[in-house]
Structure formats: C-alpha cells, structure tokens
Amino acid sequence: MDLLAQQINKAHQARPAAASVGVGVPAQIDFQGGIAIASNNLDVANLPVRDLLSEKVGIPVAIDNDGNLAMLAEALYGAARGAKHALLLTLGTGIGGGIWMNGELYRGATGAGAELGHFVIEIDGEPCPGNCPNRGCIEAMASGTAIGRLGREAAEENPDSELGRRLAENGSVDAKDVEAAALAGDAAALAAVERSGHFLGQALVGLANIFQPEVIVLGGGAIAFGEMLIAPARAEVEKFALDPMNKARVVAAELGPAAGMIGAAAFGNMGDVSKRVREALVMADFVACEDTRRTGRLLERLEIRPKPRLVSNHEGNEASRAVELVKRMERGDRIALVSDAGMPAVSDPGYRLIRACIDRGVEVEVLPGPSVIPVALVASGLPTDRWRFEGFLPKRAGEMERVLNSAETVIAFESPRRISNSLRALAQLAPDRQAAVCREMTKLHEEVSRGTLTELAMRFQGEVKGEIVLVIAPAAAAEHGQDIAFAVEALKRLVKSGARPRAAATVVASLTGTRANDLYKALTGREPRR
Predict the structure, then answer these.
(1) What are phi and psi for residue 307, nearest 5 degrees?
(2) Measured between alpha carbons, how far is 134 from 175 in angstroms, rounded to an integer?
(3) What's the Cα-to-Cα distance from 220 to each of 120, 169, 461, rounded to whole Å?
(4) What share of the chain is helix, strand, coil (3-state, %, to 5)?
(5) Most buried residue, 9, 34, 190, 500, by CB count within 10 Å?
(6) Are 197 and 182 in contact (CB under 8 A)?
(7) What single-letter DSSP state applies at residue 135?
(8) What gap in Å lies between CA 57 and CA 405, rounded to an integer?
(9) How far is residue 323's CA from residue 467's CA, in Å, rounded to a whole number?
(10) What is residue 120's three-state secondary structure?
(11) d(CA 383, CA 277)
(12) Which residues are bridge partners to 128 per DSSP?
C-alpha cells in the first residue's frame, strides 16, 4: 500500500491539477465501501483500500475491480465504443471480466460481480488456480497460465517440435514460449493455442446466451496471440450460441494493458465537478440531460444515492420538454439542467428551457463550471485581449473569409468529421495565420496542437476523435483595414436609411466580423458611451 501511495504521489506531482485518483484492484470489491473483500491471486481480506490510500495521498480515491475498469475504458474509448451492451475478458495469469449493460458497468449487489473468469465450462476440468474452489473455470482452461500448461502437454507429445526443444532445454514451458513458437509457425504451439481458443469460445457461448452483448472484447497479456486465439473462440460463438446471440462480435481490445489505467482515470476524473454542482444534483427532483446514460454514469461516479430521476432534454425534444419542465418547477419540483460536455445553452441544449423559466417568472440559478471556450483561448497562446465566439465554424468559403478578416481572436467549434476539410479551406485563404486545434478540453485526453493553418491542415487529415475547438489568431492590421472600410461604408448607408448609429454598428459588426465600437468611432469620430 505504501508503494502504491508513493506512485500516486509521484503522478500527482506531475499533474498537480488532478483532484482525485481511480485505482483498479484485482479483487472482489465492495464498491460503496471501497473495500477489497477477497482476491483469487492476492492475499487480501476486507482491506479498506479507498480509505487507506485517501489518508496517504491526501486526495479522494475511488476503487473498482481492474476488469471493470478495463471494460469501462474499452466502452468509452476502445473496442466497445458506442455499444450499449458488451462483455470483456482480460486474459492474463488469471482471467478478469467486466459487463457493460445498457450503457453502464454492471457490478452486482455490492460491487463484487462480473467475475467472468470463474464461469465453469468443464465440471471435471483442471483445478482453478489460487483461492477458487472450482474445477474447469475459464481461468483454468484459457488463461495465460492455462496456455502454458497446454503448451507443455503439446511439447511432451511432440518432442521434436520447437516447443519440445524448449522444454528439453529449459525444463519448462510457459505462455511466452508458446507465443514465440507459435509466431515461428510451430505446429505443436499453434495446436495448443487453438485448443485454448476453443475452451475460451465455449465460455463465450454461455456468456453470449445469457447477456446477448453486441461485442465481446478480449484483452490482457495473452491477447498477444491475436487471431490465433480469437478466431477459434469466435468460431465457437458463431456455431453454438443461439440466434441472435451468435451475432456478437468477438474482437481484440484496442487499449492494450493500459485499459485498466485508462478506465481508472475516467472513473476518478471528477475534479471539475464543484461542491455546489454536486449539491444541486443531490437536491434535484429531476435532472434534464442530453443523454440519460452519460448523466447516469456521472451520478454513479459522484456516488449520488438515491439518483434523481433523469429526463432527456436534447435538440430533438427541447421545445416540448421546456414546457413540461417549467410546469414541474411551478408545482415545486427542483430541476437541474446539465449537458454532455460544457455549459448548457452554449452550443448545447438549454436555451429554450432557460428562456421559458424567465418568461414564466421561475428562478434560474447558473452554477459556474468548466467551459472549453476560455480554456481553449488561454491554451492556444493567441491574443486574449479581444476575442469572440463564433459558435460552429461556417461551411461556406465566403463566411470563412469573414471569420479570417476578424480583428479579434476567433474561437469556434467544429465537428471532428469536418475539421480536416475546414483546416484545408482556411489554409487556402490564410496559409500563414497562427491557430490552435484544441481537442477534448477539460476532459481526460486533452490535447492542444498549435501552428499555422497550413501546418495544422497537414497534421489533421481524415476524421479526428473527440470534441474540437478551433482558435484562430486575429487578422493583421493590413488585412483588416479593407474589411473595416467596407463595413463603415455599409454602416453609413444604413444610417442614411434611418437606422440608429449604435444599433446599425452592432448589426454590421455581426455580419462582417468587425468590432461595433470601431465602426461607431469611424462613423462619428467619438468613442461610444459606456
């Protein structure tokens, strides 16, 4: 425990802004209590990991089973991304597991569930290693340890094989020997891996029939065998699982051995949620949110029990939902409004509900929280004294020219599917303009790429993952002068037609990307009154 605390403190020194830590433990977990109840391969009994670590590291700690966290990582960022129902088995010395059910981790009654490695597939099979009392568990028949045992049997039966030679030289054969020999094409090693794959497939058939997952993800160190192990397992599912359970995809994990670590970070990365926000969610009767699954996971990670009722409030139903929610508030219900990322109503649903509350005299309280707009602006390293938020980047070339003619730093959202095309179009208009592509700001995989628009267009080719904020440096004075002259001329015509100078300046500024104050001064020769 002391060694683990030392490593956490070392990591915290490197990232002092981290406000909490997530820890994956290879044990059965009391999730609410933060206790490692027991482990098949570790000498652990009712160890209060969360409280012991919290005391040593001085920041909040959340713990979960390492298989659960690997499942969380693959569901959020890896091979099960986008699936509502998935299973994961981590094939290492033993076999861990995780269940993704209806967009959430399933942990069982107290948090100790999802021990898929101890699903029995052969009642008279090999004894399960460690503290498990069973025989013929998946762990006993298809783990890395089991592959080593099957490899030894194959070596003894085929002394002239590469495996046989290794056994004769070293006196033993393990999974690494089997892997090396199989990759070299040794028939005995390939047969041992295939046999293990069939055992694994038998287990997956049962699990597929029970859970009907969209995808079954296979990870852990033993997945280095790749399709040599996965293909026979997949074939078992396709042949023997019931229809439509046999349609489950059986794939390799995408995140490798770091999956548990990524999942732990995702689980523990709640530092940006303020005390006021958490209290508002605890006190709410209803939480209006874009995606009830995402918000449900947020409430779970914040350990809010019991959960308030979740109601969807997205682009498709915002108008009708606003009326319904205001009526609930008028009857005394407390409604908390959240969005998937960022501030509600800023390029996210929420404006109609807020406007409806104001129109009906219902009090609105805004709780400050992380917003990618100022974060991206500061992180870009571009001028911050004068800037404007464009919303989503326009698609037409003429509108892009207007953005590039701005005398202010421009901040704009862009779709990850369009950012490559948009950067190319902007680079054609202003190849040397400085800019920054900010990806996943305030989130786990935050990234800022800076350079000219030409450099960024070359760097970002094809679809990019995550939410994108583009920050573009202001136009130089020479570039901006012509735009100002055109805008002033347009302003003069509006004023001649009877428009008030201040209101007209505001309209022209919004259409041309210039500053209303500059236009007013150019027209009247004096600064606008504050």
Answers:
(1) -75, 140
(2) 22
(3) 20, 28, 31
(4) 45, 15, 35
(5) 34
(6) no
(7) B
(8) 50
(9) 30
(10) strand
(11) 31
(12) none
Give the position of tokens 């400050």: 368
Nearest-10 Cα torsion for 43, 48, 54, 57: -20
DSSP string covering 362-426: ----PPP---HHHHHHHHHTS--SSEEEEEEPP-SHHHHHHHHT-SSEEEEEE-TTTHHHHHHHH
Residues listed for the chain: 530
Q: What distance in Å separates the CA atoms of residue 30 and residue 63, rounded to the nearest whole number?
A: 9
DSSP SS3 for 191: helix
Query: What does residue 63 show for φ and ψ, rounded to 5 degrees?
Result: -125, 155
Q: Read off the amino acid at residue 451.
A: G
Cβ-in-10-Å burial (0-12, 13-18, 19+) of 471 comes to buried
The structure tokens listed for 292 are: 């009830």
Tokens of 259: 């999956």
Whole-angstrom Cα distance, residue 393 to residue 389?
10
**Does the pLDDT of residue 370 top 80, yes or no?**
no
- For residues 299 and 329, give the distance between their C-alpha atoms in angstroms, rounded to a whole number: 21
Dihedral over alpha carbons 314, 319, 321, 325 (to 10 degrees):
120
* Backbone torsions φ then ψ of 352, nearest 5 degrees: -65, -40
User: Could you say which DSSP state residue 71 is in?
Assistant: H
Please count the other Cβ atoms lying within 10 Å of the Cβ belonging to residue 233. 26
DSSP element (H, E) containing 249: strand 249-252
At residue 264, the pLDDT reads 59
Which phi and psi angles does 161 have, rounded to 5°?
A: -80, 170
What is d(CA 91, CA 132) in angstroms, rounded to the nearest whole number?
Answer: 17
Tens digits of residue pLDDT in 445-499 = 678 899 999 999 998 887 777 789 999 999 875 444 445 677 788 888 888 888 8
Tokens of 157: 């039966």
